[in-house]
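>> received
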Amino acid sequence: MPALDAAVIFLALTAFFAAFVNGAIGYGFSSLTVPLALVVYTNRILNPAIVLVEVFVNFYVLSINLKGVPSVWKRVFPILLGLLPGIAIGGYALASLQPGWVKFATYTVILPLILLQAAGWRRPIKASWLIGLPFGSMLGVLYSVTTISGPPLAMLFNNQGLVKNEFRAGLALVRVAESTVTAIVYYKLGLFISESASLLYVLIPSVVLGIPLGSFVIRRLDAESFRRICMSFDAWVVGFGLSRVLIELNLMKSPWAYGVMAATMLIDLCLLYTFFTAHKASAKPS
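>> returned
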């Protein structure tokens, strides 16, 4: 069991909040935990522990959304096939790349995806092999390097017009496949080390407490507003993380590097104002 230092306490609080969000909206554990935890850990230490936890979390989410599986499995099947080569490529990249550059890639890819999702980007997309296979491959690379896949998956399924049960079932199917295959690839590459295993003592209790609490609380909250606030928090954290890693890699000097975080916050505040203005207007009785 890891010593109770500031990094461990920080990880425990982060994982609990992320698990709470995951229980409320069906995804968000890794996309909230990883950007924050990368401030104190590297991907090589953090990812294996996150993936093991996500295997069980995703199977649990799938078990409570089985009713939506028959109507959605044909749509996600091409994505599942595309995942396999992508996860293999991403696993080798994680094992061979310098940790600082892996952090930089994580933040750089995730930030625009979060902002696009926060902006409510919508383009009708028909499920097809032409889209599903390359999307699945790119998703596999992204997940095996970062353990994050929620934002691009949510954006794709929203643009395909999936209803709530189909949305949750589709997410769960893809995430069960990607986390299970990634865990196998990590094992084959020897990425499960003692430092990663010790983080499980922190992550598992946070998940066990956070997910049921999130599922209970969301019944009393406006789910869309809660989801949007969580996206803002995620965007601000990723902006901060990207600013920090720019300094670590000597790509920008402080305080100029924090201009990335400031720009992210400014863009998100504009998007947040637009969202709540439109949400308030739609909530008024006609």
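>> The chain has one domain: 6-283.
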